[in-house]
Specification:
By secondary structure, the chain is α/β, with parallel strands linked by helices. 39% of the residues lie in helices and 14% in strands. It has 12 helices and 10 strands. The chain has helices at residues 25-34, 52-61, 81-95, 124-127, 141-160, 178-187, 199-204, 209-215, 230-237, 243-248, 262-272, 292-305, and strands at residues 4-6, 39-41, 65-73, 115-120, 164-167, 194-198, 220-225, 227-228, 252-253, 277-280. α8 packs parallel to α11 (262-272).
Length: 310
């Protein structure tokens, strides 16, 4: 299996642009290049500037391209929709600018990069129930239908720029658990959006990554790799805690240090003929970002050791 591994700013603790402890974006790009990545995600809207010359210069200096932009917003509240669509416009204009370096299209890859990962976020009632399918409130059929309308609008806007949207089930949002993944694939046609499945979020939310990668192979355009520290994860689930607070305690760890079976995941991806890109993520407290480069290198080294030809 020959794959191209990419990075994401969340490995440096970049999830909330308002967090005062975020590392400088230029440092993140520099360390991503040192880790051996060929591409990186933009991270949350507003972290990297919407400035083509500045971003292009730093990407080229560090041997990087952009693999995906990110919508990580409250997609449920209709009052939020106008600002979300403005963010989609800004991101798409940046990542489609011809001045930015581009990734090659692999043989068998369904859509060219950069993608737009679409994630719902920002609901306390779900954030505190992350990983707990039995206690997380579900939307009524009417609310779900409105929610899907908002998600489709985001996807349609990205498609209008020629950017492939990929819906990312995310712990702590309203697209997290098995029933919600099944529902979103029922209600959002593949012509409109693909899936970005994340091994760590699947496990965190009670699903077997191998089973779900195989189940939705036909919808799978993009993959995120994480690993989960089982001891910390179980402790976090026993507490009344937000998802990223649990990550700050170390629920996510370098790949190969946790409980996910990456040889089995490799076999599953081989079996379904996956030919897209894979991005390593390890959410953390940004105050611990001084160990990010060490950890992402450890993740890449482990994947090579178990047969990933990177």
């Amino acid at each position: 299996m020959s794959i191209q591994i990419c990075g994401a700013p969340c490995c440096w603790g970049v999830d909330d642009v308002n967090n005062p402890y975020l590392p400088p974006w230029k440092r993140v790009l520099e360390e991503a290049g040192k880790a051996g990545y060929s591409a990186i995600e933009l991270g949350p809207y507003g972290y990297l500037p919407i400035d083509v010359p500045a971003v292009s210069a730093e990407l080229r200096k560090n041997g990087l391209a952009i693999v995906a932009g990110t919508i990580f917003h409250d997609l449920l509240d209709p009052d939020n929709q106008e600002s979300v669509l403005r963010a989609v416009d800004d991101i798409c204009r940046l990542i489609t600018d011809p001045a930015l370096p581009r990734l090659p299209v692999h043989q068998g890859q369904k859509f060219p990069t950069p993608y737009m990962t679409v994630m719902d976020w920002g609901h306390d009632e779900r954030d505190y129930a992350a990983g707990h399918s039995d206690r997380a409130p579900r939307l009524s059929p009417e609310a779900w239908e409105r929610f899907m309308g908002n998600v489709r609008a985001v996807c349609d806007r990205a498609n209008s720029y020629g950017v492939r949207p990929v819906i990312h089930p995310h712990a702590g949002g309203y697209i997290e658990f098995a029933d919600e993944i099944d529902a979103v694939t029922r209600d959002i046609p593949y012509e409109t959006a693909g899936l970005c499945l994340d091994t760590g979020h699947l496990y965190y939310s009670g699903m077997d990554p191998v089973e779900w990668l195989e189940k939705y192979a036909a919808r799978l355009d993009y993959v995120h790799f994480k690993d989960v520290d089982e001891t910390v994860y179980r402790q976090v689930l026993s507490e009344h805690i937000r998802f990223f607070e649990g990550c700050g305690k170390g629920a996510m760890c370098p790949i190969g240090k946790g409980c996910l079976d990456y040889p089995a995941i490799r076999s599953a991806l081989d079996g379904i003929g996956y030919a897209g890109y894979i991005t390593i993520e390890q959410e953390r407290d940004p105050r611990n970002s001084d160990t990010s480069l060490r950890d992402v290198k450890a993740s890449v080294d482990y994947l090579k050791s178990v047969g990933y030809q990177i």
